[in-house]
Amino acid sequence: MKKIIGLCAILLAVSGCGKIPTLENGEEAVITFDNEHMISINELYNTLKETYGLDTLIALADTYVLETEFSDYKDTAKETADSTVDSYIESVGGEEEFLNYIRQYSYQSIDAYRDLMYLSVLQNHAIEEYAKLQITDEEIEKYYNDVAIGDMEISHILITPDVDDDATDDETEEAEEKAKATIEEIIAKLDEANKNGEDIEETFAALVEEYSEDEATIDDDGALGKINYGTLGDRYDELVSAAAKLKVGSYSTEVITTELGYHVILKTKEYEKESLEDLKDEIRDILSEDYITENQTSIGFYALQHYRNEYGMNIVDDEIAKQYSNYVQNAIATIQNEETNEE
Questions:
Q1: What pTM does this model have?
Q2: Beta bridge partners of 158
């Protein structure tokens, strides 16, 4: 994709103002010399199509297809691309510094880079929508019956291992064991309070204040609010799974591990599961995210191929058509090889 910008810059130069000189055969010139020698636009095209032509053509095709297929997403894509580029510019200290940086990778203008980023956002959206098309009603119904649950309200206490970036494996293991021991200590205190008939919610709230390292919830008795799978991102799904097994008013009696650290949870409320029809779109989103993860090697290629084929893309130029055919065959072979190696 880097090559696209260089070609676009050249073609923009060709379309500059003023009368364009022509060769004796009537072809428009791109470059002239004092001795009246000229290089024609056809020479430029024939040379570029051997090197940058396929990349550029596919970029143009994808832009048309995806803008047409997802016309209601164009503004979002542009805003996302602009925001991303603006953050890059800010991070390097300004437009001049950013331009100097991207020129190392053949980008000749910030606008050209924005165009590339815009297309990338459109392509990612196409991949997400394509993944949804792969999810069947049967898969959705199975997920609903086997996995989907009603919303719950839970509170938690988080203990994070005290580990520095440069900690050794032994130091990391020691810190993790210490964090787990703290969780077990908290569970023991909850067990004691329960045995003595004390109010578990009040006891839990006091333990949150004493132990929890989650600054976002410590002032709210550890409450995470109404949650379900995906509500707080994948990082909390282990908490959701554990909470689903608890009765309202009960707490976890084993250490719950997430990438955030170690937890104790208290289930404070549960809601009836919504109907299949109400959850269908949400389940499709969850399953499509899993589909993307499981097919990372191939989904980008097959998704974009799907939409190009839907619009009947046909490359008329024989040379570029041959390049595209080789590209498709090589891509499929690479995907098959990678999938074989993964097995």
A1: 0.74
A2: 263
